[in-house]
Design goal:
By secondary structure, the protein is of the alpha/beta class. It is 45% helix and 11% strand. The protein has a single domain, classed as Fe-only Hydrogenase (Larger Subunit), Chain L, domain 3 (3-Layer(aba) Sandwich), CATH 3.40.950. It binds iron/sulfur cluster (SF4).
C-alpha cells in the first residue's frame, strides 16, 4: 500500500495509526481528568463523525459529553502540517494532506470549520479505500506485483493500541490500557479487555482503577447509540465512558467507504481478526518512545502557538458555526 501510494506520486506516506496513538493519549488524559473531577460524565468518544453528527441533531443538550480530542485523521493531518513541516523545512501552506479512510463521513469531518489550525486545514482531501482502489487501478498500480515499502518516519511508528482503533470497542480498549497504567502506575499484564470485544452491537464492563471503579460501554450502530443515550438521559443507567461507532457491526472495519465484497461476512471477520490480533510489540500507546517524543512534538507545537488547536477542538464552536 505504501509503495503503491508513492507510485501514485505522494511524497510522503504516514500511518494514521500513529495519529490514533496520539488520540489515545489525549483522550485518555481527558478521561482521567473528567473521571477524577466527576464532571461531564459519561465522556463519549468523538472520533466517528457519523455518530457526532447524530448526537448534534438528536441530542443537542448532551453536547458537553463528547471528548474534545481530535480524531486520528485530523490529528495526523495537523501533526504533518506542523511538526513534520517544521522538521522538513516546508511551508505548511504548500502541503496537501490526503487521508485514506474506510469512511464516507470522514470527508464531512475533514471539511468541518473547527478542523483547522490558524487557517490551515488539517486534512485537505479524504478518500475512501474504495476510491483509492479505483485510483490505483486507473494508475495501473497493482499492489500484488510491487514490493511493500515502509512508512515515512517518524510518523509511521505506531502501537497495537492504535491498530485496534478501527474495530468496535477498540477505541475504548486502547484508551483504557493507557488510563489504567497512568492511574494505577502499574504495568498492565493482560492488555486485552475481552468484555468489550465482539461483533455484536453492545458491550459493557467495569474497570477497577484502584482509586475508583469505572463503568464503560462500547456500542456500534446508531440504533444502539440511541438506546444507551436514552438510558443515560433518563438516569436508568450510569456510565463513565461510552464508545460509539456509527457502522454496525464492527465499526470502521465495516465502514461505508470500504470496497464491496462478495462475501462481506468473511471479509469483516478477517478484518476483525487482523485488528484484534495485532502482532505489534508495543500495545499501550503510553509505552512508545515515539509517543514520548509526541510530548516533544507538543512542545515543538507550543513554539508554533498551536498546540491545543492541533489536538483538540470544541463542539461548541461547531454548533456556533453550523
Ligand atoms: S464507524 Fe463508520 S461512520 Fe464512524 S468513523 Fe468508522 S467508518 Fe466512519
Amino acid at each position: 500500500m505504501v509503495a503503491g501510494l508513492r507510485r501514485l506520486g505522494f511524497d510522503a506516506v504516514f500511518d494514521t495509526t500513529f495519529g490514533a496513538d496520539l488520540t489515545i493519549i489525549e483522550e485518555g488524559t481527558e478521561i482521567i481528568g473528567r473521571v477524577t473531577k466527576n464532571e461531564n460524565l459519561p465522556i463519549l468518544t468523538s472520533c466517528c463523525p457519523g455518530w457526532i453528527n447524530f448526537i448534534r441533531y438528536y441530542y443537542p443538550s448532551l453536547e458537553y459529553m463528547p471528548s474534545t480530542t481530535k480524531s486520528p485523521q485530523q490529528m495526523t493531518g495537523a501533526i504533518i502540517k506542523s511538526y513534520y513541516a517544521e522538521k522538513m523545512g516546508w511551508d505548511p501552506k504548500d502541503i496537501v494532506v490526503v487521508s485514506i479512510m474506510p469512511c464516507i463521513a470522514k470527508k464531512y469531518e475533514a471539511s468541518l470549520p473547527n478542523q483547522e489550525s490558524y487557517g490551515i486545514r488539517d486534512v485537505d482531501y479524504s478518500l475512501t479505500t474504495r476510491e483509492l482502489a479505483k485510483i490505483l487501478k486507473e494508475g495501473s498500480v497493482d499492489l500484488r506485483y510491487i514490493e511493500e515499502e515502509d512508512f515515512d518516519s517518524p510518523l509511521g511508528v505506531s502501537t497495537g493500541a492504535g491498530v485496534i482503533f478501527g474495530s468496535t470497542g477498540g477505541v475504548l480498549e486502547a484508551a483504557l490500557r493507557s488510563v489504567y497504567e497512568l492511574v494505577t502506575k502499574e504495568t498492565l499484564e493482560n492488555v486485552d479487555f475481552v468484555a468489550l470485544r465482539g461483533l455484536d452491537g453492545a458491550h459493557e464492563a467495569v474497570v477497577d482503577l484502584g482509586v475508583r471503579k469505572i463503568r464503560v460501554a462500547a456500542v456500534s450502530g446508531l440504533g444502539n447509540a440511541r438506546k444507551i443515550l436514552d438510558k443515560v438521559v433518563s438516569g436508568e443507567e450510569v456510565f463513565d465512558v461510552i464508545e460509539i461507532m456509527a457502522c454496525p457491526p464492527g465499526g470502521c472495519i465495516n465502514g461505508g467507504g470500504q470496497p464491496y465484497a462478495k462475501d462481506r461476512d468473511a471479509v469483516l471477520q478477517n478484518a476483525w481478526n487482523h485488528s484484534i490480533n495485532s502482532t505489534a510489540k508495543i500495545n499501550c500507546a503510553n509505552h512508545t518512545r515515539t509517543l514520548k517524543s509526541s510530548r516533544s512534538i507538543k512542545t515543538s507545537l507550543a513554539n508554533l502557538v498551536v498546540t491545543k488547536h492541533m489536538i483538540s477542538c470544541t463542539w461548541k464552536t461547531l454548533k456556533q458555526v453550523l
